[in-house]
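can u do me a favor
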C-alpha cells in the first residue's frame, strides 16, 4: 500500500506562484514514477506532469511547459509541483499519483497510476 497526501493548494491571484507537495508513505517511494494530474469542475482528470524514479526524466503537458516544474526528494519521500505565472485556466483539484508497476515511456494516462492522493484545491482569481 502507498499513501499519498497532497498539500500546498490555496487561493492566489493570476500571475502568482504556488508549490504543491505530495508526501508518500508505504512502499519504497524511490522506486516508482510519480505524476500530477488536475481536474476542473465538469472536466476529466488531465495529466500535468510526471517524474521518473531518479528525478532525471520529467514530462509535461504542453499547456504548462515553462511555467510548472515537477521535482522529487527521495530522502523525504516527497514530490513537488512548482507552479509559476498561474493562469485563470489553472484552477482545479490537483492530485498526485504513483505508478508502482513497470512504466513504459511517459505515463500520462490515469490508468497507468495505481495510487492516488485525495487532492488539493488550487483557485486562481483574476
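np, heres the sequence
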Amino acid at each position: 500500500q502507498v499513501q499519498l497526501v497532497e498539500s500546498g493548494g490555496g487561493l492566489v491571484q493570476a500571475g502568482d506562484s504556488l508549490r504543491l507537495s505530495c508526501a508518500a508513505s508505504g512502499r519504497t517511494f524511490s522506486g516508482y514514477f510519480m505524476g500530477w494530474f488536475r481536474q476542473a469542475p465538469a472536466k476529466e482528470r488531465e495529466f500535468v506532469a510526471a517524474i521518473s524514479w531518479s528525478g532525471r526524466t520529467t514530462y509535461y503537458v504542453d499547456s504548462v511547459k515553462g511555467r510548472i516544474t515537477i521535482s522529487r526528494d527521495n530522502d523525504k519521500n516527497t514530490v513537488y509541483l512548482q507552479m509559476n505565472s498561474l493562469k485563470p485556466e489553472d484552477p482545479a483539484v490537483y492530485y498526485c499519483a504513483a505508478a508502482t508497476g513497470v512504466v513504459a515511456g511517459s505515463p500520462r494516462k490515469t490508468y497507468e497510476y495505481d495510487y492516488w492522493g485525495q487532492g488539493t484545491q488550487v483557485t486562481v482569481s483574476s
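The CA atoms of residues 54 and 81 lie 16 Å apart. hope that helps!!
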